[in-house]
Amino acid sequence: MMSILLPILFAFGIMSLLAITFGALNRVTIETRQILQGLSFGCGAIAAMWVPVSFGDGILIDGRAIIVGLAAGFGGWKAGLLAALMAATYRLHLGGLGAVSGVAGIFTAAAAGSIWRVIVRLRDAVKPVQLLFLGALISLNTWSVFLLPMAVANELVWPVVPVLTIGALIGSLFMGTLIERERRMFQTERRLTADAFLDPLLGIPNRRSFNALVNRSIETAEDGDRRALMVLDIDHFKVVNDTYGHEAGDEALKFVANLATEVVGDQGHVCRFGGEEFAILLETRHFDSAAHISETLRHRICVTPVELNGTQINLTVSIGVALLEDFGKVAMSELFRQADLALYRAKRSGRNLVIFADELEILRTEAHIDLTKRRALRDAHNRMREGRVSNG
């Protein structure tokens, strides 16, 4: 009995290392994670076969099935299948009378882990009773003993099957607890990261996150790509807060954020830049789409009533837009400055407007022409007065 426990204990040591690896792999994309988890658990299952209990003629008892079952249970069916293929290939390589039985047990454990994952779904914290259920399912792999010659199977049933069943139960509880701890640590880390880069009220990127998005967007831009920066401000937001209360102000912010996210879609990023001000980065190949999106957003907000404390009102927004085509010559700080100036002009011109930064140059030119005309008229008027005085 003690000799049968040794490979199970050795498998527990491997599980401890795999749990640490599992936590580290949580930080990569899900497809890559499943492959890497399958490889790591597959290597663990192979390592478990290095310390087996041999009953002669290639009949080996070890902890491989528990590891493969846990790979499928916590890593998903892809990880389980990859781990099972690796373990089965190595078991066939070892050969012997128990090779076919061993391979059948490996794939049974992988199927058991996959079924458990579908039932439990792993959305919330895994409870000990659920881990014991996983162990019970994995222990069903012991049926493969009966693929051996009947005389050998009868000899192994009583000394081996109970130990492997208990090992599967304890192993699932032991490793499941370690993996669950790693999962909770990762979720806590991800939540803290989200709190640092997302606005807690609106659930959209904050200013710090937006700056990183802008830099990454420019770095990954290809030939022909253009960027447009929209700075949006809710008109008379202080009046809304003072009239309807701060909770109503929060609802107004959520309304604008949700509508902006809907209108922009996958063409850009929406963030809360501070207070009632939002920044939107559009990734496009045509500046016409920036005009269309900004005007559509302004119009949708204007005509869509929002209910604040039981009263329906219509909000309006002012939007300043700056366009970026030459990524190497204009700094982002300058782009923000241009968008802010355009927003300021929209506010000064009556609000509920979209103003593009390049329109400011036209307005400045027109203002300069008007000023020049006024000066010319004034000078002419002065000359006429001087002429009348001299003649008189």
How many discrete structural domains?
2
CATH architecture type of the largest domain: Orthogonal Bundle
Q: Report the major sheet.
A: 5 strands, mixed
CATH class group of the largest domain: Mainly Alpha
Descriptive overview:
The chain is built from 13 helices and 9 strands. It starts with a helix and ends with a helix. The protein has 2 domains: 2-196, Arp2/3 complex 21 kDa subunit ARPC3 (Orthogonal Bundle); 207-372, Reverse transcriptase/Diguanylate cyclase domain (Alpha-Beta Plaits, 2-Layer Sandwich), CATH 3.30.70.270. The relative contact order is 0.07. The protein has 392 residues and is of the alpha+beta class. Helix 1 (2-25) runs antiparallel to helix 2, helix 3 (64-75) runs parallel beside helix 7 (150-197) and helix 6 (128-138) packs antiparallel against helix 7.
